[in-house]
Amino acid sequence: MRGVHSSLFHLWKLLLLVLAVGMAMPAPAASQDRILRVAASLQAPYQFYDLAHETEYLTGIDVVTFRRAAAKANLAVVINEMPWGEALQGIASGEVDAILAALRSPERELLGIFSVPLRFSQESLFLPPELHPDAASAKELLAKAARRGLRIGVVRDFELGGEVKDFREQYPDSVLEVSGLDQLIPALLAGQIDGFILDRYAGYALLDRYRIWDLEPHALPVYEATLGALFSKASVESELVERFNRALTELQVEGETKSIKRRFILSVMMDIALYGQWFEAILILGMVAFSISAVVIARNGGYSLYGALVLASLPAMGGGVVRDLLILREPYIFDSPIYVQILLATLVAGYFINRLFDLLHGRSLLFFDLVNVTLLLKRRLRPQLLMQLLDAAGMAAFSIVAITVAVEFGRDPLWLWGPVMAVLTATGGAVLRDMIRPDGADDMLRNGSWGETVVLWCLPLSFYLQYFGHSGDPETIFWALMICMLGIFATRIAFVTFDWRAPRY
Questions:
Q1: Contact (Cβ atoms closer than 8 angstroms) between residue 450 and residue 444
Q2: Domain ranges, ordered by start, for the chain
Q3: Predicted local confidence at residue 276, as pLDDT
Q4: What pLDDT is attached to residue 6?
Q5: Peptide bond preceding 45: is omega within 30 degrees of 0, i.e. cis?
Q6: Which residues of the chain have pLDDT under 70?
Q7: CA distance 153 to 367
Q8: pLDDT at position 21
Q9: CB–CB of 396/482 below 8 Å?
Q10: Which helix (H) or strand (E) holds 109?
Q11: Cα–Cα distance for residue pair 268/274, rounded to 1 Å
Q12: Is the peptide bond before 217 cis (omega within 30 degrees of 0)?
């Protein structure tokens, strides 16, 4: 028995030794031990620094797409900003392993290996609309621009195609070459150029950044091509490029690359569509409308000054604050205290106007009478018409604000989250307001059709923006937003005027 135990003991030691040796043996090197050094040349919306929570980080269509393809291929990457010319030199020497996206050219194919197409580029001539020449081809377009005495800015190291190359050689006095993208707008503002040639969406992003609204891309592109990631022949093996290609192709088949492109491009197009100032104006319209509505409610209900403030704050800011908290965004009122000031100013103005009416007309409903006469609907209108009109205006404006925020923060799918955020923003605060009113809760949740009206218009708008907005133009998007806003307002007023009721559960 002792011999048996001894044999088992030695066998056990042998097994432990085998296990120890196996554990001590080095594992096959993980592919992520190979860290790719990748160069990014800033060009929004493809490659740019974004500010989030006061921290800069590199993002954009190319950055996100490359990172996800690399992760899918089990590759680690470090992406650093680098001027375009310096990045190409790094590819040649092997100090840079890859450039995020580059147009094909014979010279560049000597330096590196192109991946499968990463995205499509449409180089366009940006000019004021009144200076757009009529042309049937890119060559004719550029020639007419030159003959009109227009000076066109181009970035020196950008590959823009044969037509632009011929244009540079044939009309050198009509071309101003700049060393970097950030020099185009200063040259434009200084009057050195009348326009520039740039990728369509990069041009829109550049104009949006500098808040320049009087340039548009010509309908006829001057050059179209696909871009791919450019890997250095000096430092990257072809097998690695093949792995990256397989991963990128899988992302394209799954539709993820389209989703990434749509998210970044649509936010730019939306911002241009609303011209920056339009967004602020719509937001202020909603706040003022809900604030005046609170003035009407407070006057009719005999509320205190503090009561009027609560009644105004809930619909004017409550829905937006809850929305921002849900998407982990700092509430907009902290970022822009001007909105709180506008609310307070509206309440103060309403208080003194009420006192003036008390002095001149007692407690006359002059506001309601004036509205009745203006609309010629006196027999159909209820005494609360003014409040309903203001609430409808606030609801319409806040719905557009919510859709814009959903686009900005890349809520996907937009057709779902756009209407959800619109309902929350446009009606959430008003629901809270009416819940604390003894006379208001039933109208909002039982008979008001508020949420139904918002969904009725915001759902098709969100569908359009998600599937067609990024490929359209800012003017079309602008009118789609305006139609939605006016539709919400008109539908809500129709419900009030004709005493319609929403479908019962």
A1: yes
A2: 31-119+227-258, 121-225, 269-497
A3: 59
A4: 46
A5: yes
A6: 1-33, 51-56, 276-277, 357, 360-385, 439-448
A7: 56
A8: 39
A9: no
A10: helix 106-111
A11: 10
A12: no
Question: How many Å apart are CA 98 and CA 67, to the nearest integer?
Answer: 12
What confidence score (pLDDT) does residue 20 get? 40
Helices 61-72 and 256-273 cross at an angle (nearest 10°) of 170
**Cβ neighbours for 325, distance < 8 A, ≥ 6 positions apart:** 331
Beta-bridge partners for 56: 51
Confidence (pLDDT) at 11: 42
**Same-fold call for 31-119+227-258 versus 121-225:** yes
Taking a C-beta distance cutoff of 8 angstroms, is the pair 395, 488 a contact?
yes
Closest CA to 31 of 244, 250, 248: 244
* Residue of 401, 437, 399 whose CA lies nearest to 419: 399
Q: Note the CATH architecture for domain 31-119+227-258.
A: 3-Layer(aba) Sandwich (3.40)
State residue 31's pLDDT score.
42
Q: Is the pTM of this model over 0.90?
A: no
If you ran DSSP here, which 8-state letter would residue 25 be given? S
Half-sphere exposure of 76 (CA within 13 A, CB side): 6
Place of tokens 């990069």: 202
DSSP 334-368: HH-THHHHHHHHHHHHHHHHHHHHHHHHTT--HHH
Specify whether the CB–CB gap between 412 and 263 falls below 8 A.
yes
- Nearest partner of 399 among 492, 470, 335, 466, judged by Cα: 492
What is the phi-psi region of residue 376: left when phi exceeds 0, alpha when psi lies from -120 to 50, beta otherwise?
A: left
The amino acid sitting at 248 is L
Handedness of CA 189, 191, 192, 193 (dihedral sign): positive
Q: What are phi and psi of 54, to 5 degrees?
A: 65, 20
Query: What's the distance, CA 494 to chain centroid?
Result: 33
The residue type found at 419 is: P
Compute and round to an integer the Cα radius of gyration of the chain: 31
Class of domain 121-225: alpha beta
Answer whether 388's CB lies under 8 Å from 415's CB.
Answer: no
Distance CA 134, CA 307 (A): 62
The single residue listed with the structure tokens 């059709």 is: 449
Place of tokens 């921002």: 324
Tokens of 40: 């990014």
Own/partner long-range contacts of 309-313 (Cβ < 8 Å, ≥24 apart): 309/344, 309/347, 310/433, 310/436, 311/433, 311/437, 312/343, 312/346, 312/347, 313/343
For residue 220, CA distances in Å to 128, 160, 224 come to 14, 14, 10
